[in-house]
Amino acid sequence: MKKLFLLILLLSSITVAQIEVEYFPNGLTIHPFAANTLEPKLGFLFKINSNELQLDIGNSMDLVRIQKGNRTFSVGADLFTWTLLRKENNFHFPVDAVDYLFGLNFGYKRTLHNFTVGARIRLSHISAHFVDGHYNGALNQWKDDHSPRVYSREFIEGLAYVKYKRLRVYGGITYLYHVDPAEIKKDNYQLGFDYYLNKYFGNNIKPFIGYDLKLVHLSKYTGNNSFTAGVKFGKIEGKGLSLAFNYYSGYSIHGEYFDSLEKYSSLSINLDL
């Protein structure tokens, strides 16, 4: 019995020694998907041939990261805002609409030779609001006769991916377990890829390209298309500065305009924290 006890103690010590737990680590276990509109961003998106721009102030961080061999697990937090502004004379940028997201995320990835497989699950809340820039004070009415409405969604999102070298392909589903207005259906589907070029431009210049398709379910399924191509200055999965050209078509990402179709090209600048 004594020998058995010592053997169990030894095996337990080896198992514990193979597990590394890190609190508030640098970087993210799951690197943001380049063309996905719902990712942590800190910067501006300037719409071409339009007086609108978008201000993103958001961040994700891993709170706990567990490493066991070639497997990584994490628990993190998300806190985003994305804001619609309109350009006016004298450097005025009235705020039309703003959306808020906060929630938790859970990450997993495993490296297998040249491949990495992984997944991210989010449990989040989004709410949307009109701001004073959407109000016409001279006419004492909301612009375009579009008054505020309640928009709120609580959802679980699951995205899984396979990565070969610098090419990553992903897909998943979002389920809205509570949503207002009730006319919005509860299932959305997503598919996309991103690719970072890792040669020819030095260690801190990384051209990239990405595409994301979301099937949004209102009265019927409609595809939201998001394309991006640009350059990141810095490490691919680290801190840096990204400059990109973007194209978007589909329903607005702003909740107050959830049933409005849009199509635009834009230029963006983002700080990657």
Number of domains: 1
Helical residues, percent: under 10%
The CATH architecture category equals: Beta Barrel
CATH topology: Outer membrane phospholipase (ompla), Chain C
Residue-averaged pLDDT? 91
- The low-confidence runs, each spanning 5 or more residues with pLDDT under 50, are 7-11
* Structural category: mainly beta
How many separate helices?
A: 1
Q: Main β-sheet, in a few words?
A: 12 strands, antiparallel, barrel
Span of the ends, CA to CA: 54 Å
Reading the helices and strands in chain order gives: HEEEEEEEEEEEEEEE
Give a verbal description of the structure.
This protein is mostly beta strands and 273 residues long. It has a single domain, classed as Beta Barrel (Outer membrane phospholipase (ompla), Chain C), CATH 2.40.230. Helix content is 6%, strand content 63%. It has one helix at 2-17; strands spanning 19-23, 42-47, 52-68, 71-86, 95-112, 115-130, 135-136, 141-142, 151-164, 167-180, 187-196, 205-217, 221-234, 240-251, 261-272. A twelve-stranded antiparallel β-barrel has the order 2-3-4-5-6-9-10-11-12-13-14-15. Strands 7-8 form a two-stranded antiparallel sheet. Strand 5 and strand 6 (115-130) form a beta hairpin. It is globular and about 65 Å long. The N and C termini lie far apart (54 Å).
